[in-house]
Records
---
Amino acid sequence: MDNAVYSLCFMCSIRCPIKVLARDGQVRWIEGNPHVPGMEGSLCPRGAAGIDMLYDHERLQAPLMRDGERGSGKWRKVSWDEALDFVGEKLKKIIDQYGGHSVVLGERTQLATHVSKTFLKALGSPNHFTHDALCKGSVNTACRSLFGCTDAQMAMDYKNTKNIILYGRNIFEAISVKEVNNLTAALESGAKLTYIDPRVTVTATKAHRYWMIRPGTDLALNYALIHVILKERLYDAAYVDRWVSGLAELQNFVRPYTPQWAAEETGIAAEEIVTLAREVAEDKPSVIFHFGYRGASYANEIYQRRSIMMLNTLMGSVEAKGGFFFKKGPGEVGGKPARKLTEQKFPKISVPRFDKAGTPDFPLP
């Protein structure tokens, strides 16, 4: 009889919840967790291939240590104790000679990143870095500058949205199963999809409106949308009055950025820009201007992502059904919040990061 084990898929960074069927200690089947809304038991091909990776005859199952000249391809299997002692001794010599801050650890952000950060803090090193500078670092910075949280602390109510705008977020060729299922359900219920991308993708073929925008001009488009929304008072006035500061300054800033100006920049007709602004306003607050997944293509990325988040705010879609919401954990409902090792107190680290991030040269919000 099969034994069901519930876990997370580690075949990519999405970490979809999965149900694993095992028999006699062997994995027989992997599918999406049917108890998680949006998964519906589905899983992408990469996730399903987890069985093949688990039982691949070339998969490393123990530490290997070089046994010969570098490049000779000779390795010997060692125990974890021997491997950890070897690495620890090497690190200790470096730290004793150059200081803890000489240790740099780079990784793809994942569930155990707080362990890596804690390790470096204990050594006295500020030099932990991830791939975010080449991925969603700009999205993260933009989100923190406006909302005081990271983009990872926000999510989108795809299933209940009435109008969604995607900037190069090729969601129907992506690997986030729950997002795709929920957005598909919304489209089947009448939601409208606008897709903006220089490339014609699968997502473009499913959109109600597709704009082949001139590369690097998304920010110009957004300034024009904000211009129309403010000029015609299409925004959620009650929401903005309560939660937004700096509206007058924003209005003055976008005054020169008319749809006609944006048409010259983007290649999108001015009347189409006006039409989108009016159409989205009719569906507010159940609106999503998607701030993207990878935001490291152009020098103006932080401003581009900020402008997307401003559009959501003007529509009153933050914390609204069919819009954006801040993720809630046990701590928000009176339970015990998840504990991270980084919450401990560590000695103050006075040396700057190796890339100067967070210094006057490269300040962060």
Note: The chain has a mean pLDDT of 94.
---
Amino acid sequence: MSKKSLAVLFILITLANFSACQNEEKSEQSETAEKIPSTMVNASNELEQIITLLGGPLFDGRDTIEKTKSKQLEMLTEELKKSSLGTQEETALQKDADSQEEKKPQEEDKDQDAQKGGKEDGSKDEKKEDGKEQEEGSQLKQDMGGGQDKEEKADKSAEENASDGKVAQKEQQKTFQYVDSLFGVPKWQEDNWNMIKVLTDGMHFTWNNLQPELFKKGISQNQSDRFSKGLEELTHNVNGKSIKEAQNAAFQMSQALSEFYSYYKTDIPPELKRITSHVTGIHFAVEQNDWPMAQDIANELQQEFTKLKVSIEDNQNHSFQMLELSVNDLCIAVQNQDSVLAIIRTNLVNTNINELELKLSQSDK
């Protein structure tokens, strides 16, 4: 065998060994990848539902968002059709009413002519009697006038107080009616409290089940206490229907929960969970008109995203680029204190995170 043939054979053997080593490394990585416990998945899902019901962002994928948009368009189209039909019916009824009004003056003129003669005969006697009654009535009015004025003032004062109470009640209710979600879907309803209470009460059982697993993974007592304290505050504020404080407690819980993911080696970088938590914090801060807080969290979001970009090998794929663009747009909206764009873009970032997580979880399968 010639030297040239031996050299070619050596190169082929080297490449084969290198390829085999790469496959072994990938196999080892997939084998060492841990699975997130179902209790933590349940805790995340329950908390996301609570956050959304409290007026927070959505956590759905792009397909679900598109279905929501289509459903809203269908509903608005139906309402538009009903409104158009109602307008046509009102126009027809108005025409009938106008024609009847035109006939009334003619009929009234005939009746007045017939009654005019009789009224002239009795008018003289009535005037005399009316004069006497007016004199007697004026005296009574002078005697009773003072009392009636006092009663009228008291009634008017009571009505004003009642009106002020209703206005105050309406103003208080406005705090539960934040801006609409995507596509103009009303985000807040009074029934939300009932659903949030069910989920919050259930979270105590889910958290109790999750804690032993987390302690085995090595979380600190302080980390556990942070989530527990947030859950306690959320429970009290949900019972008291204090939405701002409930939002803050839910954000605290999402921060604590996102840190737990860093104790598991999975295909999903833990930075993604922390970014999701930051998005929630920005959304709530914007709704509360707390722009300094929103800016602080946006700065932390940018730092976390820089870490994510380094940790992901294929950071030039379409899903990652969409996420990067949406994060930048969200930070710009916060910097400009544009609440309308900020609320839309928090939902957009979460949708892109959902898509990237799906891509990463399927890449090694």
Note: Residues 1 and 7 are 10 Å apart (CA to CA).
